[in-house]
Structure formats: C-alpha cells, structure tokens
Amino acid sequence: MRHLIFTVLLFLLSVSAKAGVWQDKCVDCHGLIAPSKKQLLDKFKTPGELAVKAKELADKKIMPQFDFELAAKELFNTVPEKNSSAVFLKKTAKSDLKRSDFSLLPSSSSISVDNPQISTKIALGKMLYFETRLSKNNTISCNTCHNMASGGDDNHQVAIGYGWRKDIRNTPTIFNVGYLNTFGWTGKAKTLEEMVKINIQDSVKMNGSEDQIVSQLKSIPEYVVIFRKSFPEDGDPINLENIAEAISSYLKTLNTFGSKFDKFLSGNMEVLSDEAKMGMNLFTEKGCIRCHYGAMFTDGKFHKFSLDNDPGRFEVTRNKRDKGFFRTAPLRNIALTAPYFHNGSVSRLDLAVKVMANRMLNEKLTDVEAWRIKVFLETLTAFPSVDARVVPVLPQKDD
Ligand code: HEC
Ligand code: HEC
Ligand code: HEC
Q1: Could you tell me the pTM of the whole model?
Q2: Is residue 282, in this structure, part of any structural domain at all?
Q3: Does the CB atom of residue 360 touch ligand 3 within 6 A?
Q4: Same structural domain for residues 124 and 60?
Q5: Angle at 130 between CA 126 and CA 134, to 5 degrees
Q6: What angle do CA 308, 352, 336 make, to 5 degrees?
Q7: Peptide bond into 64 cis (omega under 30)
Q8: What is the pLDDT of residues 94-118, one digit of tens each?
Q9: Same structural domain for residues 218 and 193?
Q10: Residues with C-beta less than 6 Å from any ligand 2 atom
C-alpha cells in the first residue's frame, strides 16, 4: 500500500515537473494581477536576478514560495517548455481567467455633463432622491436608506421603511449602481429605472402611490418648471416614469473613482500595502474571483446561498430550482456597508469572508487569511464626488 502511494506521488511529481513552474504556478497571477512575462523579461537581465527579486517578495509573503530558479530559467527559455495533459487540464479550467478579471471602474460615458438638458435632469433626479414627498407619509426618501453621508446604505441589519416596517433584506449601497446589469439581491429588476419604481411603491419602503406623488409635485411650481425643462418633449411631464428616469440619471453620477485598488490597476504598485497584496492573491488563489470579478466584482449571476428561508431568486422566476439563489454581491465599497449578506446577519467583514470561503468554496480560511482578504477589500473604497453627494435645496410650495 505504502509502495502504491509512493508511486502515485512520484508520478504526480513527475507530471508537475514536466508542466513547468512558470506555466503551472506563476501564470495564476502573472499577466493578471502581476507583471506579465514580457514585463519581467524587459526588467530583469538574467534569470538569477529575477529569481533573487522573486525570493525577496516571497520572503515578505507577497507571493508564495516556489522554485524561482527553475521558473526563471524557463522564462529566459533555458529550459524548453514542455506540454502535458496536466497543464492542459489546468489551463482549460482557468481559461476563463483573463486580464479583465480585475478591472478599473470605467469612466461613465453615458452621461455628458455639457448637455444642459441632461444636467437639468440630473439635478432634478437629485432633488427627487432627497424628496420625502415621494413616500406615502412624507417622511421617507431614498436617502433615508441609501444614505449619501455613509456608504450609500443604512448600516441597519435590514431596511426599515414606511411605518417603521422591517424589510426582509439588507440595504445595498447605491454607489456605482449604474454599472450593474441586474438589480437587488434577487435580480428583481432588470433596469435601474424599474428598480427605482419598485422601491418608491414598495409597501415596506416608501409606499408611494403615483396619484398622490404626482398631485403633490404638481402643486409645487418650481417642480413643474424643472420637469418641463428636463422633459421638453413631454406635454405632461410629471409622472412616475419620468421621476424614475430622472432619479436614475442622478444615480449614474454616483460613481466611486480613484480607490487604492484602481490606482494599483493603473500601474501604481506602491499604493497597496504588502498585506493588501497578499489578500489580493488569496482572493484569486482561493477562487473568490470565480464569481466576484470585473469592475464591479460580480458575475451578475445567481448562486445558491442558503442562510435562512428567504426564497431568493425564486421570488422572481417562480422556478423551484432558484430557491435560495442570490446575485453575486458587488464588492466595491464593501468595507463601508456592514452588516453583510442579504439578511445582514454578519457584522464583520473578515467573518463574512470566512462564511463565503466556507459556503461557496468549501475552504476553511485561517484568521490571518480572512484578515488579509479583508485588508484587500478595504482598498476598494472610494466616494462619489462631493458635488454629487451634497444635499440640495428642495422646492417648497409658495404660500
Ligand atoms: C499568487 C499570485 C502570484 C504568484 C502565483 C506568483 N507571483 Fe510573482 N508577483 C505577484 C505580485 C502581486 C507581484 C507584484 C508585487 C509588487 O510589485 O509589489 C509579483 C512580483 C514578482 C516579481 C517582481 C517583479 C518586479 O517588477 O519587481 C517577480 C520576479 C516574480 N513575481 C516572479 C514570480 C515567479 C517566477 C512566479 C512563479 C514561480 C511567481 N512570481 C508567482 C504575484 C504572484
Ligand atoms: C426603506 C429603505 C429603502 C428605501 C426608502 C429605498 N430603498 Fe432602495 N433598496 C432597499 C433595499 C432593502 C434594497 C434591496 C431590495 C431587495 O433586493 O429585495 C434596495 C435596492 C435598491 C437598488 C438596487 C441596488 C443593487 O445593488 O442592485 C437600487 C438601485 C435602489 N434600491 C434605489 C433606490 C432609490 C432610488 C430609492 C428612492 C426612490 C430607494 N432605493 C429607496 C432599501 C430602500
Ligand atoms: C459561487 C460564487 C461565489 C464565490 C466563489 C464567492 N462568492 Fe461572495 N458572494 C456570492 C453571492 C451569491 C453573494 C450574495 C450572498 C447573499 O445573498 O447574502 C456573495 C456575497 C459576498 C459578500 C457580502 C456582500 C454584501 O454586500 O453583504 C462578501 C464580502 C463576499 N461575497 C466575499 C467573497 C469572498 C472573499 C470570497 C472568496 C473567499 C467569495 N465571496 C466567494 C457569490 C460568491
């Protein structure tokens, strides 16, 4: 028996040796989140020089330890690259890993600030965002739950809305929602406009009714003027459709550029601490990136995450197979939006990281690993411009 295990081990060793260290190990990160083969060859003159630098970083735990001498020789092509089925299998499993796995928040091009018509609409949207008169009892605005002064959320376990009613779910951040392609924990809306309309009318959120809102806004002359300017083609512009459109235009300005992580991706390697880099490597290595990728760190898809008896995606599709499925949560500004998960049941980010590893990847992270991933996630924090966040003066009735 022992002999058999030994033979298998030997076989595995020989396979991985054949695979080549560079292909087998280094490409997990290099060319993705670390300098590419070409960049390394441009920078280092000899394999020895490269290996020394690599070892230095590995000693600081920025990279795992490998046989860097061998990898360096492969890189400089003193050892010919061999192919094997092991490499092939590994490569295909990873074929969906691309440079774009991590990506900068794209500068929003859908809104042009020098278009006066549109900027009026954004200004109107901002007023409406802070407008409690969209709610049934004139006390709740979008900002009550998606608070501009914090992380674009309320930091409550679950949202508290109309008549102090508790929602079943935690409030997600409103920042960067313009980049999403499905909305809410369960993807209950396909467009931003639709999501806004749902929340205005939802009985545990604002409980607004179109008739009441429209008649109130129509009684305020300043609103009548701004709606006309924002929707000049419309004979009767004050309606729920246009309210949602204006608010959505405003929401698309709440983007958080310039996080440390984005600076890193733009080429400033120094901006991340060693600990954050280790966390970033763990995030890729452990497989978080399989679901949390792209500029918003989400695949926009739904995955099983049973935590409670929330029906999840089932509430939208009515398909039994979708019970307990939720959208991969976007992770930008995650450090600001505790507590975590759709029911807000976990208060600390490092604990949420552990829960994820456990449930989604069947991995038990050490405290140190979870902490490092947390430190990495903290580099995703940034705020929308102050202009976008400052509370506007709201029109009043002339009386
Ligand atoms: C888990 C991810 C990961 C793996 C696997 C990995 N590296 Fe790295 N490596 C990095 C990161 C991130 C950096 C950039 C660190 C920095 O500049 O602070 C880096 C930097 C380097 C550098 C220094 C580059 C420079 O511009 O100074 C060398 C050399 C290097 N790696 C070689 C290797 C080799 C060879 C392997 C495979 C045996 C390897 N690395 C495997 C993540 C990784
Ligand atoms: C009572 C608190 C509350 C109020 C008021 C509220 N929301 Fe929300 N919002 C939530 C909750 C909770 C969710 C998650 C709903 C779900 O998935 O079931 C959410 C989800 C969203 C989303 C989707 C975010 C994402 O990550 O997909 C957007 C966009 C949004 N709200 C915009 C608004 C706007 C605009 C208003 C004002 C018209 C508003 N909300 C009012 C609590 C609130
Ligand atoms: C199989 C896909 C998948 C993988 C792999 C995965 N996640 Fe998630 N992640 C999700 C889903 C789905 C949610 C939403 C959970 C919910 O409904 O509460 C989520 C939520 C989160 C949240 C909470 C977000 C919030 O706003 O409350 C964090 C933090 C997080 N993931 C981090 C990670 C980390 C770190 C890893 C790796 C250890 C990881 N995830 C691996 C799919 C995944």
Answers
A1: 0.78
A2: yes
A3: yes
A4: no
A5: 105
A6: 110
A7: no
A8: 333 443 478 888 875 444 443 444 7
A9: yes
A10: 134, 140, 142, 144-146, 159, 161, 167, 169, 171-172, 174, 177, 180, 183-186, 188, 192, 195-196, 199-200, 205-206, 247
